[in-house]
TrEMBL record:
<dbReference type="GO" id="GO:0004029">
    <property type="term" value="F:aldehyde dehydrogenase (NAD+) activity"/>
</dbReference>
<protein>
    <recommendedName>
        <fullName>Aldehyde dehydrogenase domain-containing protein</fullName>
    </recommendedName>
</protein>
<dbReference type="InterPro" id="IPR015590">
    <property type="entry name" value="Aldehyde_DH_dom"/>
</dbReference>
<dbReference type="InterPro" id="IPR016162">
    <property type="entry name" value="Ald_DH_N"/>
</dbReference>
<feature type="domain" description="Aldehyde dehydrogenase">
    <location>
        <begin position="17"/>
        <end position="82"/>
    </location>
</feature>
<dbReference type="InterPro" id="IPR044638">
    <property type="entry name" value="ALDH7A1-like"/>
</dbReference>
<keyword id="KW-0520">NAD</keyword>
<dbReference type="Pfam" id="PF00171">
    <property type="entry name" value="Aldedh"/>
</dbReference>
<keyword id="KW-0560">Oxidoreductase</keyword>
<dbReference type="InterPro" id="IPR016161">
    <property type="entry name" value="Ald_DH/histidinol_DH"/>
</dbReference>
<comment type="similarity">
    <text>Belongs to the aldehyde dehydrogenase family.</text>
</comment>
Length: 83
């Protein structure tokens, strides 16, 4: 499993880090959990819906690319959890 906690980033490419890293994770057989910035959840939701549709069309469970939204406490839990 790969976990990405992405900070807010100005500019038109807010999702490129998720795209690059999740593609590598999927090729290696891993799932991805993406925690977006609390200031840009709509962009993250739109990207996740697109990824989900592509995965489903190719017979891959959409849950391989999971999105979490929320404040910094969610990111802290993801990064510090020992499991």
């Amino acid at each position: 499993m790969s976990v990405y906690v992405l900070p807010y980033r100005k500019g038109p490419f807010k999702s490129e880090v998720f795209g690059w890293n999740s593609a590598i994770a999927m090729i290696c057989g891993n799932t991805s959990i993406w925690k977006c910035s609390p200031t840009t959840p709509l962009t993250a939701i739109a990207v996740t819906k697109i990824v989900s549709k592509v995965l489903q069309r190719n017979g891959i469970p959409a849950s391989i690319a999971t999105l979490l939204t929320g404040d910094a406490d969610i990111g802290d839990i993801l990064v510090t959890d020992k499991r």
